[in-house]
């Protein structure tokens, strides 16, 4: 019996040692790119470059609905889904010092109201706030600036925002970024339920 036990242990040892590099590789991939769990399913990568990527949040099939250029407050169902998603995101990362600051230019009143909605929701879970933006910092596409070290987490955070924030976002990875900043584009449109969309052609 003992001979059989030790014989089996010695034969299994090379296999165990061989698994160590594989586990290390998996850990590195998760650190830099995140895992492939379901909480990233609402973020679709459209384009990738060495310094960033263009993604789409929410449904890729844009719903056929009445659109509004004027701000529409999120419905109770949309707000509840956003808060649940952020609570889940925070619950999975209780010890991480995550902070996202959201801004829109002063003359983009609808965008500023969206920033306040997102900032208030983030603030409930100590994940971020609304911030002021330079008046001249107008952008035609919503931009998220983040450190490359946060690459694995950024998609998860955007997915948590996607019950409310939908459409096109450019993620810019910047070695000098100390805080994540989400700067909203100047051309939001709103669905009947108050969801906010960017990069949507409502004239088609």
Tell me what the structure shows.
- The chain has 204 residues and is α/β, with parallel strands linked by helices.
- It has 2 domains: 1-33; 38-198, no CATH class.
- 37% of the residues lie in helices and 21% in strands.
- It is built from 4 helices and 9 strands; from the N terminus they run αββαβαββαββββ.
- Strands 1, 2, 3, 4, 5, 6, 7, 8 and 9 form a 9-stranded mixed beta sheet that branches.
- The model is unreliable at 1-6 and 26-39 (pLDDT under 50).
Please name the defining characteristics of this protein.
single chain; disordered N terminus; 2 domains; 9-stranded mixed beta sheet; alpha/beta; 204 residues
Strand content: 15-25%
Radius of gyration: 21 Å
Number of helices: 4
Query: Helix-strand pattern, N to C?
Result: HEEHEHEEHEEEE
Mean pLDDT: 83
- Spans of at least 5 consecutive residues with low confidence: 1-6, 26-39
What structural category do the secondary elements indicate?
Answer: alpha/beta
> What is the percent of helical residues?
25-40%
What is the 3D form? globular
Separation of termini? Answer: 76 Å
Please identify the oligomeric state: single chain
> Main β-sheet: number of strands, strand sense, barrel status?
9 strands, mixed
- Number of strand elements: 9
What's the number of structural domains? 2
Could you give a quick summary of the protein structure above?
The chain has 204 residues and is an alpha/beta fold.
Secondary structure layout:
Blueprint: H1 2-33, E1 43-49, E2 52-57, H2 76-92, E3 100-103, H3 109-123, E4 128-130, E5 142-146, H4 151-161, E6 165-173, E7 180-183, E8 189-190, E9 196-198
Parallel strand pairs: 3-4, 3-7, 5-6, 6-9
Antiparallel strand pairs: 1-2, 2-6, 5-7, 8-9
